[in-house]
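Quick one, T. Sequence first:
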Amino acid sequence: MTVSVDMGSDDRGAPVTMDLEELLATRLLVQGNSGSGKSHLLRRLLEGSAGQVQQVVIDPEGDFVTLAGPHGHVVIEATDYSIPEIERFAARIREHRASVVLSLEGLEAEGQMRCAAAFLSAMFDAPREHWYPALVVVDEAQLFAPTTGGEVAEDVRRASLSAMTNLMCRGRKRGLAGVIATQRLAKLAKNVAAEASNFLMGRTFLDIDMARAADLLGMERRQADGIRDLPRGTFMALGPAVSRRPITVRIGAVATSARSGSPKLTPLPEAKPFDLADLLAEPEAPSLPLSFDPRPRRVPVEELAADIARPPEPAIATPFAPAPAAPAKDEAEVEAIHAEVLRAIVADGEAALRPPAVLFQDFQVRCRMAGLAKPPLDLPAFTRRLSCARAGIFDIHAPEWADALALAGTLPDDMMGAFLLVARAAREGRPCPSDMELATTYGTSSLGRVRRLVGYIESRDLFVTRVDLSGKRSITIPRLGWTTEPAEAA
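Structure tokens:
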């Protein structure tokens, strides 16, 4: 099925169309100075293709949120959400094929880059079954793929540039067709601009930008001066989706409008000159006179000594009664609260790779919410309890775990969880935990570190590892006499 979007007319009045299927395969670059009509062009393309293909708009100024009413786009105000929430939105958008406008209005430049990078990367990393075709329109692309670092952090710049590069270079196989607009080609990273095969070049005045635009359009340098004379809303077009030869396109009208338009002349207020003069020269409200002498007073020695010798005045009783103290909890209640809080922390999937110091703060807050004014655990004790909890052992006072906990105490605190996970599987006669399970308990994503961990525990004579002929691994804890069932290590 061939779908064409009417973009406007050429010099002779003939209609100029954009082949949507070809655009999805070849991408589009729009360039023009501020006020040349880039946003108008993008709006014309979005309105003409709405309902034909999924649309995702990265909108730094909030101009395209007006598409929500007539075309049903979902507006995501980035200021209302965190980065993990933005990433979840991106994944759901690809799954449900929803057309959205990500409005970055209200964020600083670094925040816009960070948010756009997270959103585009999450869309790029969607599973293969969600690789549906989508137009990804990025307005003011030089903000997200700059040629230089500017005043933003280097890691933010690299993340944003990587996301834009993936969109333009590798996005086609994932169904993502980049449509990027920029004020100046010289400000846009070359790796991003070079991947577009369709070009719409608007008015520009700097020689370096005209030269690059002429090169992309296949024009001679002396013909580049014509780009300077283009009227507002007129672009020179070239590409397999629009025309095989450079043509001039006058972009047609649009049905929706941006929230912020170009400044228009408005009549000045009708007031007589002397009234305006009186208004401008109106005196400010008089300030209150000082009721004290601001100069420091020299205190006589006798008066100062008398003040020092004077007994302190009794404290004035407060009219508010003190808050009643929380009832003291016995040791069993405290232990039950600790176990419940640790169970909630371990159940949080995002807590697996967080350092213990960060989780300790979460532990303290949860304990206070449960009625413990001050949890009696310090950070080292919490780290040991967290290792036990990650292994599924929440009651450390149970007699059946006394010997295993004593052996685990001879290891570093961060290794206790992996040892106890194996011990629990061995005691219950279950298969040996895989390297991935041990990695989650150890708080890492590196399987190499897990293999070194098992080797270290084995060097301490706490593990004896056996691998049978089928490649399955079993681990014995000789001091306890417990052995796991064989299982795949991978």
